[in-house]
Amino acid sequence: MAGASIGCGRLVPVDKLLIKGGTPLRGAITVSGAKNAALPILAGSLLSAEPIVIKNVPQLKDVATMITLLQSMGVQVTFDDKLNVEIDASKVTERRAPYDLVKTMRASILVLGPLVARYGEAAVSLPGGCAIGARPVNLHVQGLQAMGAEVAIENGFILARAERLVGAHIVFDTVTVTGTENLMMAATLARGETVLENAAREPEVIDVANFLIGMGADVSGAGSSTIRIRGVEQLGNVEHVILPDRIEAGTYLVAAAITGGKVRLNQASSDHLEAVLVKLREAGAEIIIGEHFIEIDMKGRRPSAVDIRTTPYPGFPTDMQAQFCAMNSIADGVGTIKETIFENRFQHVLELQRMGADFEIEGNTAVCRGVEKLTAAPVMATDLRASAGLVLAGLAAEGETLVDRIYHVDRGYERIEEKLRQLGAEIKRVPN
Ligand code: UD1
To answer: What spacing in Å lies between the alpha carbon of 28 and ligand 1's midpoint?
Structure first.
């Protein structure tokens, strides 16, 4: 349906981004709080009846969706203009995540563990498929079953019940980020000890663990592949500051690289971006790392093509794959990108080809022969990071690129056009 999207059952107009490419980005911006930490932490607030304050919360569509979900359950949420959110989950009247919200944001599944742990029951709509792959949630469900929950799938909902969860030894078949977070949160109120093996090691998992520890949970090992959680009777209050968004930071670093610019990112953590920084250096960027900033200087050079293989943290993040596809498309040489996490995550490549990029896709591998210039075209965003890749391509292309369906961008990038304009980009949001 052109020009509209279905959000929560309503037709809403869809904005587009108009980008006039060719300006090398210059200047400084501040990185926002991490979406992928804010979402589980907001969901985790269901674990406590005491007041919770979360700071540095990014203003994003996905965050708004999670807050709407919490409010629909009876949770009181207040926020100020300084990105602080106060949560009072002392009364949770509905233990249900409806399809209307879950279908707009799969991370809604993160309320499952906390609800079962605190209330002994939850009904969470099954998310269904996704533009980038099947993305099942079987490991979330199996983990809860191992902790004693009875789980049924009825009318498209996961219905889970347990008088009180019990600690379990869980070995994940596949490294799953939200699966690790969901079960780690559930285990905080279980009877006895839970051990999660082959757990995700993402920095966001550590941030969630620190939030839980702040509430009085007994969690150790987050950041390694074995996490131990000893259940406690109840959790208390906490004030927690969300860590910086490494994917947002990485995206702006590539924006500088693809335009031959020089950009400083304040409040960026280089420790969480090592795999990305290695590839940017390989592409010819000079990277300077300060205590709370990362600076990239491309010195006007055209990037060199790089080979990439996406893997769970600390490997190269799948959430940076589309941005590097955009960079490789104008790079000098041939770059091979292998996607090992999601099976259908090359839709941006088809759009990049419409801008003149030279890709060949075979299975989970995209081989790109860099071209001197991309040419502007109307393109369509298909998912959050694909949309970031298209915006970056637009910044480098000759002419005016119109990126459609940018509600995908708004799910995960705070004020993207303002931040890019601050760096000198010619970009504006055009209403449909
Ligand atoms: C999270 C991130 C997302 C990122 C992804 C991989 C959040 C809110 N989202 O998504 O931005 O792209 O990690 O880094 O943090 N899998 C199963 N069964 C399950 C769960 C996952 O087979 O029960 C598979 C998935 O299909 C996928 C792989 O495991 O192939 C990794 O997915 P997972 O880490 O779970 O992704 P998300 O947590 O959904």
So the answer is: 32
Q: Cβ(27)–Cβ(422) under 8 Å?
A: yes
Q: Is the pLDDT reported for residue 7 higher than 90?
A: no
Q: Determine if ligand 1 sits within 6 Å of the CB of residue 135.
A: yes
Whose CA is closest to atom 12 on ligand 1?
A: 319
Look at ligand 1, atom 25, and give the residue with the nearest C-alpha: 135
> pLDDT for 75-91, tens place per residue?
999 988 778 999 999 99
Say what the pLDDT of residue 136 is.
Answer: 87
C-alpha to C-alpha distance for 28 and 222, rounded to whole angstroms: 32
Rounded-to-integer distance, Cα 336 and Cα 351, Å: 18
Q: Which of 427, 425, 423, 418 is nearest to 28 (CA)?
A: 423
Task: Please give the pLDDT value at position 13.
Answer: 56
The pTM is what?
A: 0.95
Question: Relative to the CA of 384, which ligand 1 atom is closest?
Answer: 11
Alpha helices (runs of H) in 290-431, residue ranges in sequence order:
321-329, 347-354, 384-396, 407-412, 416-422
User: Residue 396 above 60 pLDDT?
Assistant: yes
Task: Work out whether strand 150-154 and strand 157-161 pair parallel, antiparallel, or are unpaired.
Answer: antiparallel
Calpha distance 35→319 (Å, rounded) = 12
Choose the residue to mutate in 60, 126, 174, 343 for probing ligand 1, maximizing ligand atoms within 8 Å of C-beta: 174
Strand runs (DSSP E) across 40-102, as ranges?
52-55, 76-79, 85-88, 96-97
Residue type for position 28: A
Q: pLDDT above 90 covers what percent of the chain?
A: 91
- Does residue 130 carry a catalytic annotation? yes
**The residue to which tokens 């109307």 are assigned:** 378
Q: Which residue's CA lies nearest to atom 19 of ligand 1?
A: 137
pLDDT value at residue 187: 98
Q: Which two tokens stand for residue 431?
A: 């209403």
**Ligand 1 atom 15, closest CA:** 36
